[in-house]
Amino acid sequence: xSISAKTNLLDFDRAALESFFxxxxxxxxxxxxVMQWVHQRGVADFARMTDLSKxxxxxxxxxxxxxxxxxxxQQRSTDGTRKWLLAVDGSENAxxxxxxxxxxxxxxCVSSQVGCMLNCSFCSTAKQGFNRxxxxxxxxxxxxxxxxxxxxxxxxGVTNVxxxxxxxxxxxxxAVIAAVNLMTDDFGYALSKRRVTISTAGVxxxxxxxxxxxxxxxxxxxxxxxxxxxxxxxxxNRKYPVSELMRACHSYVDGYNRKITFEYVMLDGVNDGLxxxxxxxxxxxxxxxxxxxxxxxxxxxxxxxxxxPATIDRFREYVxxxxxxxxxxxxxxxxxxxxxxxLVGAFRDRSRRSARYRASLNQFEGVPVAR
Length: 371
Ligand code: SAH
Description:
By secondary structure, this protein is an alpha/beta fold. It contains 12 helices and 14 strands. α1 crosses α2.
């Protein structure tokens, strides 16, 4: 059997792996043993899985494989942030994931799609267009690669995962849920559900589905307190306007012990005034939540500028003064383009958006970029 025709075990969460094993007459606990070898010990070679019978190992070797994306390049920022460029599909498409090391934790920012369809006006991933959804193996493969590389370096492994890399996780629902299941599974990465965050630009029907299938943390990229502005910044808002988004947020938390993290990118002169802050408080004040202010990370030809630090402070103090826990996210890794909204990977754009974008840049040649 050719390598690629073999079943990639990274594509299965526990329930799926157990039924795959059951279909071959194997007991569920064998599936759990294999999960521990793969996800906890980083062993991809079935011959080394010594507590499995010889016949089971032989079957695994002939039918199965453990294949994560291939590392093309690694970069390290002066602030310690690390970025991996990973090939999916041979060498045609590549994605990025980012490790943010802090004193007591290693947060991995994971991609869910090759590119992104949403086209948010301030995000550089959006400018590259969209190619396809990642598979479960490609999503969990990012955790698998980085976690075991860290352990091999004598570091502690990945302690937190944020689905905040390239793509919109809730538009790749099933693969993301299976990957998240592996992150929190005791036989997988055993992360507590509070240490895994799914971030969404507001795919309302998927948020409603999410509430029933997983209990991980939810972040909502809000960025604007009303439809007029949000339509412009997050075009998905034209489909799922602010009122519907807020209703979905309420139903995600109501009756549960949950909080939503709202993300708000601070764009100079666009959404960073006290009037915006006041409307934001009125909008989210009734929802158990906290607010993350993200200083805008610029990139070449961006239409926006970052808000001044004093403006961000004033905004934060106003919102915090109304009783909403508000933190300003410290930009990390911007010297290696690893900060929020700077991940681009390298891939063939099927939406043809990147070509249109490049053409539209001509108008900016030599002109200072402003709104
Ligand atoms: N599609 C999902 C996951 C991406 S998360 C979502 O929208 O939530 C990436 C986060 O970084 C989002 O909150 C996004 O709005 C923000 N972001 C995008 N571009 C940025 C930029 N240039 N500067 C700062 N934050 C940015």
